[in-house]
Amino acid sequence: MTRIVAGESAVPTRRRAVEAALAIGLVLLIAVGAIVASNISRNTGAQAAEPAPAAELKLGYFGNVTHAPALVGVKKGFLADALGGTKLSTETFNAGPAAIEALNAGAIDAAYIGPNPAINSFAKSQGQSVRVIAGAAAGGAQLVVKPGITSAADLRGKTLATPQLGGTQDVALRAWLAKQGYKTNVDGSGDVAINPTDNAQTLKLFQDGKLDGAWLPEPWASRLVLQAGAKVLVDEKDLWDGSATGKPGEFPTTVLIVNQKFAADHPDTVRALLAGHAKSVAWLNAAPADEKAALINEALQESAGAALPADVLNRSLANITFTLDPLAGSYPKLLQDGIDAGTTKKADINGLFDLSALNQVTGGGTISAAGLGQD
Fold this sequence. Notes:
This protein is α/β, with parallel strands linked by helices. It has helices at 10-49, 68-75, 78-83, 96-104, 115-124, 168-179, 199-207, 220-228, 260-265, 267-286, 289-304, 310-318, 331-341, 356-362; strands at 56-62, 87-93, 110-113, 130-139, 141-145, 159-162, 193-196, 213-217, 231-235, 252-259, 320-322, 353-354, 373-374. Strand 12, helix 14 and strand 13 (373-374) form a beta-alpha-beta unit. Helix 2 packs across helix 10 and helix 4 (96-104) packs parallel to helix 5 (115-124). The protein starts with 9 loop residues before the first helix and ends with a strand.
């Protein structure tokens, strides 16, 4: 029933009702359209933000035998092939801290490096800088000295070298000397002087009688022994009983790390890098000795400017294990050694490892992060 008020007819009232209904319908339509548009916008934004392979991956490594997975991966094209459409650019370094500086500055995206510089970077950035994504090499570091030095007691007042302050061998030497009762300082003073020195310069200084010894990675330990008459005072493998890793005599010398932001932005590129890296390690462990030595020497000629004598290269390779396992269980000790040496501050290294992509790539047994990150 329509109520009629004096002075009005029923028609305008019905018209207003229709108009009101139309207005309400229009408002609802606009609202629905806004919701749809918003959802489309969000979906489009999510699609746009989806990680994509990087246009380029900049990789750092050293011209050392302990970085043979990088040398072989570049030389044989394992890394470039795995990266596909992503361009591979490379840069060589002499020691870990310099490579870390380049990584943190964005000059490189990933690097083969010693464990202690990786720990230092992670600690200083409060876990925001790098992730260890794979192992590369274990073993291959020694303290070599003049023949007249026969025990730790003979080192007081002597001058020793390491590749770089805060590097893996530098920390190992300082930690070992501390256990022998010696005090060392990062400025080179103390009971034993430690001079961080470029490896090639270390060889020359030792030959000239200006150094008493050095804690070095391969091939430099072998070069001092075979080319300069040094003797081995400490083989670092003898200091690792395997209690933390289950692998006696093995300790991490080289690992593969990646800039954390790069990994978040380009996970497919990181997986591709790991696929090439895994192929390189597999080749090193399967290739005939002569073929392996020849290829590494070719790569050293290109990256370091000189090949190695056969005896030096063979001795070096005999001291190294190439492995995808970064031996994460050893890292609490490495951290404490750095703290004791005065090159690292106390830090929480939980989260340093992300081995999930590595385990996806290998498809084999899980390589453990030892509770310090993702397996």
